[in-house]
């Protein structure tokens, strides 16, 4: 029997995106409306509107004035004529000058490598916390969050003390005769990786913990019972269960890491190229606000597009 | 064609020509031998010096309340817990130090523990793939096993898309696919509703007979244990208090605990007044009369004993029944306090002059059976000499 399918059949969810949205809007109660609209309003006021302002500036020309950019709309009162001047030159320049492309790629590379190592460090930590007794679990979780109680800047400075030529690590290695010459660690990409992994570790540990904590331990017993050795079971059972946490954690680390400014500025060398630094230089050294805005806009697009793609492939799958 | 062997090999191939079960034969080799197993968690003794022999093709039920140690015992068989002391020998091999993934044992978990990210097919295939069975053979055996549990049509589904009963079948299929010598089932039917449970019980027995696997089932449900098992081990506080066939556990409980745990029972306290080799006469103040039981016990004269009497073995009548063959014993008087009509039978709660309450069930032979008696009626209760059991502990 083929029942006619229409939007009005309750429980019959239309597949297309637009249809789904209409379906969702129709079936929302007032309570749910307020719950959903509040964060939407927040996003609109504090993210979308500022972004439009930045986007507007990116289409202007730099001038020596306050603010240091031309207005897009010029009004000639005598002729009663308005002209809209959009300057796409900033965007064209972004693609013409290899420097910017390099900066983007380098940022993505540094962020990706750091995210990978953050994951490697965070996974065992999250696993241990999720498997420990509930009393120690609270203690361990608060230890993970504890660094947030001191200033981020202070903690990065502390790493300078560790990594510099006559810093703690070199001193330690020299005293024990492991090295003859102090290692150059500060002002290298290595130091930037360390800084990012250290700073963003909690953002990776927490979602991983949440995913692993939800996992039913009897699944591992069942796998062992069926002949799986512990290491196999980790890859076949535990890791797939942790995928939502891995995705969330990686996004939480990768996105801010791409735009990171403080860590490469303090720990990185002169050749450490990251888009956050480029942005800073455009704003405060060149005072070229439109160019800086264009850099920021493209960065957002570079970041948002992959996330949208991940989200889409994820929602296509059935929830675990 | 190794894969068809399992399904074809008849369970009875190993058994003797006459149908005497292995556990009643002298010198029969047990398939699973549990020797003085003890498991302690800190100060708490979960399993207390249990010894038990289970034979090939048995469907053995460990029956007990929560905290009786039955699950711990099962987990030791699977290898998830190491015994504090004692030995587990499966098919002649001592299991000490053998890891779960190396034991010839599979387990069906109470929660089913299906892998949520894998499809039905992949779940069932998991065990075979770990053994390195060729892909084509895996596919064939999985298909066969899913056919056996009647789930072939849902092979691509994920566990969360299945109903409780379907998940239970997949869990069973997954635990059977490696053709274990010993299958452990932890509350296999606990999560199913009553009707589905009854259906599945018989299916489980069918499959067990078809495949010839030895089952050890843990359950707290005495009905489940009665219908499923060849033998029942009743557990209490880490010990097995009685091991017997379902019929014997019900009709010949060896202690008050077992009698009260399995089914409902009326218990009369009394003192022995006549102790013959094949019968006992007991005076019970509580019952308000003499009780006569046609089996002997070893006891001291005037010893305090308990007479256990199942509710369905009591006849209720308005007129005094003729108990002259028992010298007037096994006949007591009471007042009906409550009648519950349950369709197939009626349950009476009858108060004795001593204050003791007796539970009686009567099948509803005719449509107006329930109307024969009413509240506050004075009635006689009587039973035969072979209806009750005397218990000393």
- Which percent range describes the beta-strand content of chain A? under 5%
Question: How is the main sheet of chain A built?
Answer: 2 strands, antiparallel
Give the strand line-up of the largest sheet of chain B. Answer: 6-7-8-3-9-10
CATH class of the largest domain in chain B: Alpha Beta
What is the residue-mean pLDDT of chain A, rounded to a whole number?
85
Approximate helicity band of chain A: 55-70%
Integer count of domains of chain B: 2
CATH architecture of the domain at 97-287 in chain A: Orthogonal Bundle
List unreliable stretches of 5+ residues of chain A: 1-12, 316-320
Tell me the span between the first and last alpha carbons of chain B: 55 Å
**Strand composition percent of chain B:** 25-35%
> What is the number of beta strands of chain A?
2
List the quaternary state of the chains: heterodimer
What features would you describe in this structure?
The complex is a heterodimer of chains A (320) and B (393). Chain A has 320 residues and is mainly alpha-helical. Chain A has a domain at 97-287: MetI-like fold. Helices cover 69% and strands 2% of the residues of chain A. Chain A has a two-stranded antiparallel ribbon with strand order 1-2. In chain A, a hairpin with a 4-residue loop joins strand 1 (73-76) and strand 2 (81-84). Chain A is flat, with a radius of gyration of 26 Å. Chain A starts with 16 loop residues before the first helix and ends with a helix. Mean pLDDT of chain A is 85; it is low at 1-12 and 316-320. Chain B has 393 residues and is an alpha+beta fold. Chain B folds into two domains: 2-104 and 180-256, Rossmann fold (3-Layer(aba) Sandwich); 264-391, Beta Barrel (OB fold (Dihydrolipoamide Acetyltransferase, E2P)), CATH 2.40.50.140. Chain B has helices spanning 2-8, 70-78, 120-131, 135-148, 164-176, 194-211, 222-228, 246-251, 256-261; strands spanning 32-41, 44-54, 59-64, 85-90, 93-94, 105-108, 182-186, 214-219, 231-236, 239-244, 266-276, 279-284, 289-293, 304-309, 315-317, 331-341, 345-351, 357-363, 378-382, 388-391. In chain B, the strands form four sheets. A six-stranded mixed beta sheet of chain B has the order 6-7-8-3-9-10, sandwiched between helices. In chain B, strands 13-12-11-14-20 form a five-stranded antiparallel beta sheet. Chain B is elongated and about 75 Å long. The termini of chain B are far apart. In chain B, 38% of the residues are buried. Residues 1-17 of chain B have low confidence and may be disordered. Chain A binds chain B through residues 216, 218-219, 221-229, 232, 236-237, 240-241, 243, 318, 320, and chain B through 78-80, 99-101, 105-107, 109, 111, 113-117, 126-127, 130-131, 158, 160-161, 174-175, 178.
């Amino acid at each position: 029997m083929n029942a006619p399918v229409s939007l009005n059949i309750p429980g019959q969810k239309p597949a297309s995106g637009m249809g789904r949205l209409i379906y969702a809007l129709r079936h929302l109660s007032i309570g749910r409306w307020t719950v959903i609209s509040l964060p939407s309003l927040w996003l609109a006021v504090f993210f979308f509107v500022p972004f439009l302002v930045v986007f507007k500036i990116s289409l202007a020309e730099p001038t020596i004035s306050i603010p240091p950019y031309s207005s897009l709309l010029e009004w000639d009162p005598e002729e009663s004529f308005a002209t809209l001047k959009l300057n796409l030159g900033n965007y064209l320049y972004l693609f013409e000058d290899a420097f910017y492309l390099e900066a983007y790629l380098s940022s993505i590379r540094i962020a990706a490598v750091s995210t990978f190592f953050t994951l490697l460090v965070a996974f065992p930590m999250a696993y241990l916390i999720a498997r420990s007794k509930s009393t120690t679990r609270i203690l361990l979780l608060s230890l993970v969050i504890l660094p947030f109680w001191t200033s981020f800047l202070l903690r990065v400075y502390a790493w300078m003390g560790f990594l510099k030529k006559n810093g703690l690590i070199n001193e330690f290695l020299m005293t024990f005769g492991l090295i003859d010459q102090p290692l150059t660690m500060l002002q290298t990409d290595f130091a930037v990786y360390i800084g990012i992994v250290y700073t963003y570790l909690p953002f990776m540990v927490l979602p991983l913990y949440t995913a692993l904590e939800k996992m039913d331990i009897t699944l591992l017993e069942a796998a062992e019972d069926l002949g799986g050795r512990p290491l196999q079971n980790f890859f076949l059972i535990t890791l797939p269960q942790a995928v939502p946490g891995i995705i969330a954690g990686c996004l939480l680390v990768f996105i801010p890491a791409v735009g990171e400014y403080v860590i490469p500025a303090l720990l990185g060398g002169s050749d450490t190229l990251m888009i956050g630094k480029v942005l800073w230089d455009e704003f405060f050294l060149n005072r070229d606000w439109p160019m800086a805005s264009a850099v920021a806009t493209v960065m957002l697009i570079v970041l948002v597009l992959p996330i949208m793609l991940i989200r889409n492939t994820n929602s296509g799958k059935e929830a675990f | 064609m190794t894969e068809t062997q399992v399904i074809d090999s008849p369970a009875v191939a190993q058994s003797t020509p006459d149908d005497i079960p292995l556990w009643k034969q002298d010198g029969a080799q047990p398939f699973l031998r549990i020797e003085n197993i003890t498991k302690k968690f800190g100060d708490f003794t979960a399993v207390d010096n249990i010894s038990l022999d289970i034979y090939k093709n048995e469907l053995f039920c460990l029956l007990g309340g929560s905290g009786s140690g039955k699950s711990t015992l099962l987990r030791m068989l699977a290898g998830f817990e190491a015994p504090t002391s004692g030995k587990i020998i499966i098919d002649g091999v001592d299991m000490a130090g053998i890891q779960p993934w190396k034991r010839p044992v599979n387990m069906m978990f109470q929660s089913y523990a299906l892998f949520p990210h894998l499809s039905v097919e992949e779940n069932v295939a998991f065990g075979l793939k770990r053994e390195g069975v060729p892909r084509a053979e895996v596919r064939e055996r999985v298909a066969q096993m899913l056919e056996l549990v009647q789930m072939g049509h849902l092979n691509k589904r994920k566990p969360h898309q299945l109903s409780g009963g379907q998940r239970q079948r997949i869990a069973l299929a997954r635990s059977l696919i490696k053709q274990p010598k010993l299958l452990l089932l932890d509350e296999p039917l606990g999560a199913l509703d009553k009707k589905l449970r009854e259906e599945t019980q018989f299916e489980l027995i069918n499959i067990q007979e078809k495949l010839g696997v030895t089952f050890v089932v843990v359950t707290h449900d005495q009905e489940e244990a009665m219908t499923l098992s060849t033998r029942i081990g009743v557990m209490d506080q880490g010990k097995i208090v009685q091991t017997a066939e379902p019929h014997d556990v019900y009709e010949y409980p060896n202690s008050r605990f077992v009698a009260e745990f399995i089914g409902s029972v009326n218990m009369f306290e009394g003192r022995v007044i006549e102790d013959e080799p094949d019968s006992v006469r007991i005076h019970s103040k509580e019952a308000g009369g003499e009780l006569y039981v046609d089996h002997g016990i070893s006891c001291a004269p005037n010893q305090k004993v308990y007479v256990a009497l199942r509710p369905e073995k009591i006849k209720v009548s308005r007129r005094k029944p003729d108990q002259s063959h028992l010298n007037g014993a096994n006949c007591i008087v009471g007042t009906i306090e409550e009648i519950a009509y349950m369709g197939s039978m009626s349950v009476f709660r009858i108060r004795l002059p001593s204050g003791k309450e007796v539970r009686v069930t009567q099948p509803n032979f005719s449509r107006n059976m329930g109307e024969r008696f009413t509240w506050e009626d004075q009635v006689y209760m009587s039973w035969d000499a072979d209806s009750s059991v005397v218990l000393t502990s």
